[in-house]
Design goal:
Layout lengths: L9 E5 L2 E11 L24 E10 L1
Length: about 60
Amino acid sequence: ITNQITFPAKVNITADGITASADFNVDRTLYDIKFRSGKFYENLGDKLIDDNFNIKFTIASK
């Protein structure tokens, strides 16, 4: 299952190296992950799992 995503990233270039960081949300249902999704199943109550999850990362290079 593939689905291209784009996201904003902050890139910082200094004399010491390069860092890139990003913080964004992904909708898991776009990748056919339906388990306990409110979009596909009703009456899940407290068994519901949020369809969106957050990805946050920083990459550094010297």
